[in-house]
Amino acid sequence: MKNSSELVTLTMPVYNSGEHVERALLSALNQTYSNIEFLIIDDRGTDNSMEIVHDIIAHHQRGKAVRIITHPENIGTGATRNSAIEHASGKFIFFMDSDDEITTDCIQKLYEKMVETDKDVICGSYNRISGNESSYFTGFHIPLWNKLYKLSFLKTNHIKCVPDSLTEDVLFYVQVLVNSNAYLVIPDVTYYYHCPIHFPPKDRSLKTYSDWRQVPVDACNVLNKSSAEIQTRIKLRKKIFWLAISVSGMALTGSYNIQHYINDYLNPVFLKNKDTFHSWILIMAYIICCMPLEIKKIIVQIHIKYFYKFQ
User: Most buried one in 42, 163, 167, 295, CB count within 10 A?
Assistant: First the structure.
């Protein structure tokens, strides 16, 4: 890979984020890396978010590097990600959310590591900010953000988000890992994920729970067709199972009467494959998924009490 400063597309969907979009956009525009196109996807919110965006780019020295793609109507986060992939001009693409922020050297660090290693994806570490508390996270996380992707890698492998879904990150994550020859995580914090101080399960929309019914189906369909190494497939099946346990916990503790969805989240058919027999955890997962709903609820409650807190 050449060491010249190659074009990076930094993309941000904007929808009713007027309270935070200035912070997010300025953190993007103030990058030390010079060769960036800033791709704003206007998903037709109802607040003053886009007014703030237009005001910033009118006065910022990098305003001419900003392109705005306006959807005819609100079509959701997944579709905005797909719009960004479709319209990006850069050799690489970076996703961020309009209520978060990135460090000034975010793109510089990720790009330099991409040049050094020539991976398909470079992932930064991040801090989760909730009120006055800050927590450090590293590893190849599920959300699309804070990763520098080769645009050709995404397009060649037809990697996209589910358009009308609130769980678009999960399937994208699975597609990336089964198709990637190599990815790398760096320990440097390059992203600040701002999370509300209190975000209990009852605040999640009913559509989130409904959409989750399809997540294991789609993810396992991708894995069943994949030629990825068995260890990669096992790792992803474990990840999907633990996510299904977690969302089952939200179904138990949330305000909606949707506990019956747990049978969809924890369905044994998703684990009826040769990969399961290569992992005792997946064998255990299969046994749990075969249990009656009331037993599944007890297992999920134990998980909530001792291993996971929904905040």
Answer: 167
Q: Report CA-CA distances (Å) from 101 to 66, 261, 270.
A: 17, 35, 37
Quote the Cα angle for 137-140-142, to 5°.
Answer: 90
In eight-state DSSP terms, residue 181 is: S
Alpha-carbon distance of 49 to 41, in angstroms, equals 12
Q: What is the CA radius of gyration of the chain?
A: 20
Place of tokens 């747990």: 262
Q: Taking a C-beta distance cutoff of 8 angstroms, is the pair 118, 148 a contact?
A: no
Instruction: Return the residue matching tokens 């096992």.
Output: 234
- pTM of the shown model: 0.92
Mean residue pLDDT across the chain: 91
Contact 120, 153 (CB under 8 A): yes
CA atoms of 254 and 268, how far apart (whole Å) = 24
